[in-house]
Design brief:
This protein is of the alpha+beta class and about 425 residues long. The protein has helices at about 15-45, 90, 115-125, 130-140, 150-165, 220-235, 250-260, 270-275, 280-295, 300-315, 320-325, 345, 350-355, 370-385, 400-405, and strands at about 60-65, 70-75, 75-80, 85, 175-185, 195-205, 210-215, 240-245, 265, 410, 410-415.
Length: about 425
Amino acid sequence: MEDYNGTSKRSPEKEDPRSALDDLVREGARQMLQAAIENEVAEYLERYRHVTDDKGHRLAVRNGYLPAREILSGVGPLSIQQPRVDDRKLRKQKEGEPFTARILPRYLRRLPSIDNLIPALYLKGISTGDFPQALSAILGSSVKGLSATNIVRLKAMWEEDYRQWSQRDLSGKEYVYFWADGIYFNVRLDDERTCILVIMGADKEGNKELVAVSDGYRESTISWKETLLDLKRRGLHKGPRLSIADGGLGYWAALNEVFPESREQRCWVHKTANILDKLPKSMQSKAKAHIHNMYRAENKQSALAAYDHFVRVYKDKYPQAVACLEKDKDVLFTFYDFPAVQWIHIRTTNPIESTFATVRHRTKRTKGCGSRTATLTMVFKLAQEAQKTWKKIKGYNLIPLVLEKRIFIDGELQEAA
C-alpha cells in the first residue's frame, strides 16, 4: 500500500485475538490476587491500629514490598509482590499475633489449580519426563520450577498423603448416601482388567466427600468386599441408608454382605444407555423420552405407569431392551422413598461421573506405565481437588430424618400416627 506521497506504507500486523484474550485473563487474575493480598495486610494492620508505643507510634506498620515472585496458576505465571509488614515491636511486646500471609504463604510457588492438572495429565498417559514440556504448552513457555525431578518429588509427597488418608480413622462417621463406581484409566496398572474403585459419600450434614479409592479386579465382588470391609475395620460400623451405582458391578453382592441394611438404587444414566444400546438408532430418541418419563415422574405410581407403557410398546419387537429394564425393576424406583428435594442427587452416579469425566474409561496401554500406587495417588489427588468444589446436597436438613429411618412416600415425609 502507498500513501499520497507514493511512499510505501505497511499495514500494522494483526494481533492474535486469542493471545490478547489470554493476556487479558492473566492480567485480570494477577490484579485480583494482588488486591486480595493487599486487603489481607490492610485488615491485619487495622486490627492492631490501636496498639501503640509510649510515643503513639503503631507497633505494626507497612514496610514496602518483598521482591516480586512468579506464581504458577491455571492461567499461566503471575508476577506478584507481597506487601512487607514490620511487626517486630508487636511480637516483642506480645500484644498480638504476628502477621502470617494466608492467601500467599511465604514459600508458595504454585496455586492449587495446578495440583488438579498434574494428576489429570498423568492419568492421560503423560510420563514424568514429558511433564515440563506438556505444562509449558498449557501454561506458557515461562513456566519454571516443574522439572522432572520436582514432579517426582511432588508425586512422592502425594503418595504419602494418600497412604495416610487411606488409613484414616472413620469412627463416628455416618453416611446417608454412597455413590460407587469403577473407573478405568489408560492404564498405569499391571492389567487392563484392573480398575480403580471409587466411593463418594454424603455425610449427616449433607457434605459430599471422598470415602474410598482402591484398586480392584474388573469391579469384582471380592474387590468391592475388600474395600467395604476396610471401611468397616477403620470404624465405619453403619452403612449408608442408600447406595447408588451401576447395575453391572460386583458392588451389590459385596454391599449386601458387608452393609446389608443399605438400600439399593440403580443409576438411571447407566440404565438408559444400556437400554438404548439394544435399540436401533432410529428408535433411540423416542425411547429415551419414554425412559425420562419413568424417573422424572412426580410420584412412583406415575413412574410405574410409564414403565408399563414402555414394556407394552417395545417388548414384542425389542425384547432385549425390555429385558434390560425389567431385570432391575425392584431397584430402579427406590429413590421415591427418600426426600423429593434430594432425588436429583440420588437417581444417578453423576457426582462420580462428572469428577472423572475427562480421564475415565480409557484402557489402552501406554509406554512407561507407572506403579499401581502412583495411579491410585493420582486418582485420589484429582478427586481431592474436585472435592473442594462439591456442594452440599439439597435438603440436607432432612438427612437426620432419613438416618432415623422415618418414612417418606413419593418424597414426602409421613407424619407418625
